[in-house]
From TrEMBL, chain A:
The keyword Transmembrane helix applies. The chain crosses the membrane at residues 12-35. The lineage of its organism: Bacteria, Pseudomonadati, Pseudomonadota, Gammaproteobacteria, Lysobacterales. Residues 130-276 form the Rod shape-determining protein MreC beta-barrel core domain. This is Cell shape-determining protein MreC. One of its GO terms (cellular component) is plasma membrane. Keywords: Cell shape, Coiled coil, Membrane, Transmembrane, Transmembrane helix. Involved in formation and maintenance of cell shape. GO terms for biological process: regulation of cell shape.
Automatic annotation (TrEMBL), chain B:
It holds the Pfam family MreD. Involved in formation of the rod shape of the cell. May also contribute to regulation of formation of penicillin-binding proteins. The keyword Secreted does not apply. GO terms for biological process: regulation of cell shape. It is found in: Cell inner membrane; Cell membrane. One of its GO terms (cellular component) is plasma membrane. This is Rod shape-determining protein MreD. It comes from Rhodanobacter spathiphylli B39.
């Protein structure tokens, strides 16, 4: 019955043709996916089409902005007063702490100059706003309203008032996408503040926790320990809060301890974030030194004195 | 003539609206409940006016969606093509289903879509999504009757095809 109708309608004139077309389109899509996975076309295409894509992002971000504005407009006076009071107290406290720290920081600076290191406590940051856009990768990404035109580069660390949020992953002319530290594909080198134990914190599947799967069994890690960036790897500067340990248990394999931590930053509630401009000095092992030798044109035996100077012993 | 143009604009407008609503985020708790809007709107149009929805259109919309919020180029093109193909193949039956059966069919289509997405993501090397990721098709199916009636009603009011 239905089949007879199918065949009479023009679109189903040839079912085989329809299926063939489906196969062609599916194959085309798969080829595109493989090519894109290999070459990263999507971001280049987005970059090319940024004149169209970015306004669409701003447009899609409008409802979130609207909700924010409405919540301010309709918030009752008392709540705003309370919030104001709380913020003022926070500011007072922070200022007091800063004043106390100023002397210490200065002393630190002097000592560091004596030691001839270049670590600095000054932050060179840029304030960016989060655009409320869902970029489809579960919940592990954030879109910011600053891009290449504002000097944002891939790899820049992103922090908020409480801790590290992630790093810039892709940059369009006036927007950029941040990979959060809770992304399962993300790893950040951390140090346990209390004991100085260094380990790596990975994102987790649920998107709101950090997992530390490789803590030695004998290590002393307790619930409530604070995790700071260790600065190893040179991507994140050392000393920023990353999270608090929530639970510690032996791994199923019995070879490590596994700790779960809650990110210190307000991963899903931040509206304003800071982009760090100075990338950390690479603190890890030095880059492999290029093998030095005499220039190739005088290598095999043109001169006698030069190779000895370069420290090479010729047979 | 102008009525026809209006109906073209209405058709394109709903699809653009679907792409935009795909980008609009929900507050954190509700995030897994967000239905896949482009699929729902494309389904509506493939049931209601089959001559306008073709595999080529689904492919182009999918590419557009990928450009806006994809992880891999071609992923949503693949999903929407498969979805529209099945919907068009069973169109004459789906159209005359009572609403609850239609919603169940939509649920099956959306679940199939999620499985395709999961396959693509796993092949691309992503990790398994959390369990709440499977809620979205059910929300989409639950919203289907309302979306269908709303769009039908709007179309009747605007007196367009």
């Amino acid at each position: 019955m239905a089949r007879a109708r199918d065949e009479s309608s023009p679109l189903f004139a040839g079912n085989a043709a329809g299926t063939l077309r489906l196969i062609v389109y599916l194959a085309l899509a798969m080829v595109l996916m493989v090519l894109d996975h290999r070459n990263g076309w999507l971001w280049r295409l987005r970059d090319t089409a940024s004149a169209v894509v970015e306004p669409v992002y701003r447009l899609a971000g409008l409802p979130a902005v609207g909700v924010r504005t409405m919540s301010v407009a309709f918030a009752d006076r008392q709540r705003l007063t309370e919030q104001n009071q709380r913020l003022r107290e926070d500011l007072l406290l922070a200022n007091a702490k800063l004043n106390r720290m100023a002397a210490v920081a200065e002393q630190n600076q002097r000592l560091k100059e004596l030691l001839d290191t270049q670590h600095s406590l000054d932050l060179n940051v840029q304030l960016a706003r989060v655009i409320g856009v869902d970029l489809g990768a579960y919940r592990y990404q954030l879109t910011l309203n600053m891009g290449a035109r504002d000097g944002v580069r891939p790899g820049q660390p992103v922090i908020d008032a409480h801790g590290v949020m992630g790093q810039v992953k892709e940059v369009l002319p006036t927007t950029s996408v941040v990979m959060l530290i809770t992304d399962p594909a993300h790893a950040i080198p951390v140090v346990v503040e209390r004991t100085g134990l260094r380990t790596v914190a990975y994102g987790s599947r649920d998107g709101d926790e950090l997992a530390l799967p490789t803590i030695p069994l004998a290590a002393d890690v307790r619930v409530g320990d604070k995790l700071l960036t260790s600065g190893l790897g040179g991507r994140f500067p050392p000393g920023f809060p990353v999270g608090d340990v929530r639970s510690v248990a032996p791994a199923p394999t019995g070879m490590f301890l596994v700790a779960l931590a809650k990110p210190a930053a307000d991963i899903d509630r931040s509206e304003d974030v800071l982009l760090l401009h100075d990338q950390a000095e690479p603190d890890g092992p030095p880059a492999p030194v290029k093998p030095m030798g005499p220039p190739s044109q005088l290598a095999p035996g043109a001169s006698v004195g030069a190779p000895a100077a370069a420290g090479e012993v010729k047979p | 003539m102008s009525r026809q143009r209006l109906s073209q604009w209405w058709f394109a407008g709903t699809l653009v609206f679907a792409l935009l609503s795909m980008l609009v985020p929900l507050p954190g708790v509700l995030e897994p409940f967000k239905p896949y809007w482009p699929a729902l709107f494309l389904l509506y149009w493939s049931l209601e006016s089959e001559d306008r929805v073709t595999l080529g259109l689904a492919f182009m919309i999918g590419l557009g969606a990928d450009l806006l919020n994809g992880v891999v180029l071609g992923e949503q093109a693949l999903r929407l093509c498969a979805l529209v193909f099945i919907a068009l193949r069973f169109r004459s039956r789906l159209r005359f289903f009572p609403m609850w059966q239609q919603a169940l069919a939509v649920l099956a289509l959306l679940l199939n879509d999620r499985i395709l997405l999961l396959l693509v993501r796993l092949l691309a090397g992503a990790s398994l999504p959390p369990a709440s990721w499977w809620i979205s098709p059910f929300v989409g199916a639950a919203l289907w009757p309302f979306l269908f009636l709303l769009l039908d009603d709007l179309r009747a009011r605007l007196r367009i095809q």
